[in-house]
Amino acid sequence: MTIRLDKNGYGKNAIHLSKIIRHPDRQEIRQITVDVALQGDFDEVHRTGDNRLVLPTDTMKNTVYALAKDRFSASIEEFGLVLAGHFLHHNPQVSVVEIGLAEDCWQRMQFDGVAHRHSFLNGGSEKHTAFIRQHREGAVLSAGIKDLLILKTTDSAFEGYIKDPYTTLKEAADRILSTSCDVSWVYTESPADPGALYGAIRGNLLRTFADHKSLSVQHTLYAMGEAVLGNFPLVKEITLKMPNKHHILFNMQPFGLENNNEIFIATDEPYGYITGTMSRD
Amino acid sequence: MTIRLDKNGYGKNAIHLSKIIRHPDRQEIRQITVDVALQGDFDEVHRTGDNRLVLPTDTMKNTVYALAKDRFSASIEEFGLVLAGHFLHHNPQVSVVEIGLAEDCWQRMQFDGVAHRHSFLNGGSEKHTAFIRQHREGAVLSAGIKDLLILKTTDSAFEGYIKDPYTTLKEAADRILSTSCDVSWVYTESPADPGALYGAIRGNLLRTFADHKSLSVQHTLYAMGEAVLGNFPLVKEITLKMPNKHHILFNMQPFGLENNNEIFIATDEPYGYITGTMSRD
Amino acid sequence: MTIRLDKNGYGKNAIHLSKIIRHPDRQEIRQITVDVALQGDFDEVHRTGDNRLVLPTDTMKNTVYALAKDRFSASIEEFGLVLAGHFLHHNPQVSVVEIGLAEDCWQRMQFDGVAHRHSFLNGGSEKHTAFIRQHREGAVLSAGIKDLLILKTTDSAFEGYIKDPYTTLKEAADRILSTSCDVSWVYTESPADPGALYGAIRGNLLRTFADHKSLSVQHTLYAMGEAVLGNFPLVKEITLKMPNKHHILFNMQPFGLENNNEIFIATDEPYGYITGTMSRD
Amino acid sequence: MTIRLDKNGYGKNAIHLSKIIRHPDRQEIRQITVDVALQGDFDEVHRTGDNRLVLPTDTMKNTVYALAKDRFSASIEEFGLVLAGHFLHHNPQVSVVEIGLAEDCWQRMQFDGVAHRHSFLNGGSEKHTAFIRQHREGAVLSAGIKDLLILKTTDSAFEGYIKDPYTTLKEAADRILSTSCDVSWVYTESPADPGALYGAIRGNLLRTFADHKSLSVQHTLYAMGEAVLGNFPLVKEITLKMPNKHHILFNMQPFGLENNNEIFIATDEPYGYITGTMSRD
Questions:
Q1: Coil, helix or strand for A52?
Q2: Neighboring chain C residues of A161 at a CB cutoff of 8 Å
Q3: What 3-state class would DSSP assign to C268?
């Protein structure tokens, strides 16, 4: 019997890096987490334990910190492209480099309408993400948002679905819609200002969610993807993952009370999980 | 041998409740988690399994949802006092009721400066908390903030400490100070508007953190407590817990680079943990 | 512009189900978590909000509990095949059903060498997993282990790797090797007794890990995959994910002490992440 | 206004340490997490930022690793006493040292009934804990178990409780009882062999849980505490925390099926939370 190594990959995950960027009038904090993964000609590494082609994951980590000094001053998309290019260039045994980045959203503190020079507040679970898949012929750049927790108290319904012998769910003409959304989109080419474009796409996604007359999670997911594809020509594909953070009507009948669509049990599990990938035809 | 039951307590934890409050021009979402605990004359329950004095924790949960319908329309402090009073009044076997509440901070979405009527964004890890300890003679009301993640990039030092044979830490005249702060304070009496007072105290804590010239975490912790005790006469005691979210200078010397206090390793564990409780003398 | 829905999928995740199976001389506890996902002809659902082809995720959940009564008495692999078949058969609009299952490993308590009839202890983080991808032409069955936390204190080295300007890692002839392993394998056809086969494969993986003279994580990963492919003809492909749970030598030189490879800092992040997929050539 | 610092404490939490202990015929892995906290004369530290009496938490961490080399070879209770004594002895400004320790339960792998020399499997969520509170007059030593996840499928009932207008819970003559138990006990004096005594007490707790005819969680909690106080004279006080890991009967009536106490929804939240502290009268 001979064994084929169909796929391989290795790298360093969860490299947590903070950088202070000092301006004359204020300081910035950037806090990111980086994952590095390499694929390539690693058959002998696996078969015989010959490590001559192995760049240690500890060295990957050091490289990320060292390159951050001069090359991380703008968007994570740009820093990720630098990292991907560096690892591919210096490692001929590697065919594909994947770099994943996630940035914490620190908000500058404000007092009486004045932004503080150097103090920040946690901006929520939400993270700005980027992903680069770099091979010898070029790179594919994606950006996205992770753990974007959003909720609307109305303009959401779920009716007219299949009824079968296991159905107990009641139709809802007006319900809470909440999701901890993961969105990512692929660019046709690297944008001139990835940070600004990210902000614009994020705003478009939020506004679509807020204003949509939702007939299902799928319906809203599609509307959000359609809006981004319609408004941003540089986006060629978008994927949305929308777990349904269920808010279930609490049954008050046993107590002789009526629940006028106002008191809900917020549950974590089990949860509906809706995904879709969309592009232009 | 006879056994003494020195302490007992039981209740329901992690009751997740959402409420929509509908106004003519907008809707509000309130999302809270409630813990209920009872202490009292439960010796026979433990010794013989006689459950005649046991209010099931499932019933506590139902009660929280049912009372939320008419009694939860303002602050969590006020709703907590209602719950504590209810359980004490209806359960003569109970000597102490403890109610803990934590509210998620949803932020209303804004588009072009206009607040959306019914759509919300996750406001971060931060939670507004309240705690009521109610006994037959009266209630003690506390409020607080949990998981308040804050950071300043300068105006923080740590120098002049003990050096011993196990010391390797280098003194820092300028470092990142970051903490996921838990603060709680005890009121001398129930405030007229607990929600508004909470907001004012929170603002005072943030501003003190931002403006303080910190010589240690202890030093800043004390300044924050002192500010609240100095500005808010209704607060009689304040407790701060400030885990140190270390940002450690990355050593670039092996690569021939200088780290001018700009690139840091953000670590989770181990972490410094600083606590203090303060009152007026 | 027209939009193409390239991929879609929806379902219910994290359905937590427990079953007691009663035998004359003992009782069994089975505790599983089930994920259900459907793909198919859902274009109109997304575009117009027409829900006529939508089986609600709440109904999927009910179905899992209802079918567990009569059909979940042996392995999770067999129950998963039942669920996949059920959803495909009753939903002509669906082209693919994916069922993921994970079972907690409860251990029966033993006292003085005697197994207790009905009491159990948590068997660790480890879970037995199964995954079924069912389409109209047939089903692909995978099984696996998740969160298998294993460690060896010797017979592991990492030497001879690339040195570059960012290298600081010291070579190690004898180190701790620890990983929280996720393994899954694809069967060529459904085994007669999936539970027994799972146990045999698990034992083979553990023994290979324990006895291997490891020259790198990749080297051990390959040896484990090779052993399973060599010993179990029903396995046609195996994928291993082996995050490196680093145990880093604590530097005692500043204290005038020598660390003879005995005291380590156990770290969580960052972590090396090694993956590979193998099959017979 | 003058401010009183009523309580203060600071230290290092979550120090993760692994040690290999090498025997002629086998190797041992010990993996522990240590928390160190100091209280004392720290008023000036807080008021003025004078750090002359501050032992940095980084130094505490170094001390734990350095002392582990020669002093951590037996139980965590003994190592904790060494650490507490060290910090109190070398820091006259300190009045109280608290050391918390938790040990992971690695299980040696076995193949064909033979214990492997150096390979281990994760022993579950359960941890062995110890806690030392050391002041100038002496030390109080506690030991315990954390996250002990146990379950019994029968011999558990909950009936005869209070019914009120908010009651919907049905009485259960036969239910699943499951808890993720935290237990800790205080010793009158340090045992000769704390590790062996820990094992005996753990066994006694498990057996009592397994064999008890439970009429409520409180009833079982009391029985477990009573057994330990009755059998181990060195234990002077025991505290049990028993969150109820609810397994709720799934309602099959809507599907025309009967649930003969066999199919359950395993839920995490909300959860009942039962606590008690017991001693000899």
A1: coil
A2: 51-52, 54-56
A3: coil
Q: Are residues C154 and C264 in the same domain?
A: yes
ipTM of the prediction: 0.95
| Burial of D1 (C-beta count, 10 Å sphere; 0-12/13-18/19+) | exposed
- CA-nearest of C116, C225, C126 to D120 is C126
Q: Residue C86: which CATH number? A: 3.10.270.10
**Residuewise pLDDT in 10s, chain B (281 residues):** 799 999 999 999 999 999 999 999 999 999 999 999 999 999 999 999 999 999 999 999 999 999 999 999 999 999 999 999 999 999 999 999 999 999 999 999 999 999 999 999 987 889 999 999 999 999 999 999 999 999 999 999 999 999 999 999 999 999 999 999 999 999 999 999 999 999 999 999 999 999 999 999 999 999 999 999 999 999 999 999 999 999 999 999 999 999 999 999 999 999 999 999 999 98
d(CA D61, CA B273): 12
A163 catalytic residue (yes or no): no
Picking from C65, C121, C126, the nearest residue to D122 by CB comes out as C126
- Nearest Cα neighbor of A146 from A184, A91, A108, A89 is A184
Same domain, B243 and B124: no
Q: Does residue C1 form part of some domain?
A: no
Phi-psi region of C63 (alpha: psi -120 to 50; beta: other; left: phi over 0): alpha
Q: Pick the catalytic residue from B19, B33, B57, B247.
A: B57
HSE-CB of B18 using CA atoms within 13 angstroms: 25
A79 and A198 share a domain?
no
Annotated active-site residue D69? The verdict is no
Whether residue A270 is preceded by a cis peptide bond, meaning omega within 30 degrees of 0, is: yes
Question: Are residues C162 and C272 part of one domain?
Answer: yes
Task: Classify residue D34: in a domain, yes or no.
Answer: yes
Give CA–CA dist C52/C186, Å, rounded: 35
The 3-state DSSP class for residue C226 equals: helix
For D252, nearest residue in chain A (alpha carbons): A166
Interfacial A residues in 143-182 facing B (CB < 8 Å): 148-155, 176
Same structural domain for residues A160 and A122? no
Compute the CA torsion angle D115, D117, D118, D120 (nearest 10 deg): 0
* Number of other residues whose CB lies within 10 A of the CB of residue D21: 14
Q: The whole model's pTM is what?
A: 0.97
**Across the interface, which of C16, C215, C270 has its CB nearest the CB of A49?**
C215
Statement to judge: residues C21 and C125 lie in one domain: yes
Phi, psi of A228 (to 5 degrees): -65, -45
Residues D18 and D114 in one domain: yes
Extract the tokens encoding A157: 């319904």
The helix or strand, by DSSP H or E, that contains position B248, with its residue range, turns out to be strand B247-249
CA distance D69 to chain C (A): 7
Q: How far is B267 from chain C (nearest CA, A)?
A: 8
Whether C38 is covered by a domain: the verdict is yes
Which residue, B104, B136, B168, sits at the end of a domain? B136
Question: Please, which residues have CB within 8 angstroms of residue D50's CB and are 6 or more apart in sequence?
Answer: B160, B215, D44
Query: Which residues in chain A have their CB less than 8 angstroms from residue D165's CB?
Result: 255
| CA pair distance A228, A200, nearest whole angstrom | 10
List the domain range (segments joined by +) for residue D165: 148-279
Shared-domain flag, residues B166 and B237: yes
Is there a contact between D21 and B128 (Cβ–Cβ < 8 Å)?
Answer: no
Give the total number of structural domains in chain D.
2
Q: Does any domain span residue C87?
A: yes
Q: What are phi and psi of C257, to 5 degrees?
A: -115, 155
Instruction: Yes or no: say if A30 and A19 are a contact pair by the CB < 8 Å rule.
Output: yes
Tokens of B260: 């001018």
Last residue of a domain, one of D136, D158, D178: D136
The tokens for A45 are 């590494």
| Helix (H) or strand (E) segment spanning residue A265 | strand A263-266
What is the token pair recorded at A206? 């939020």
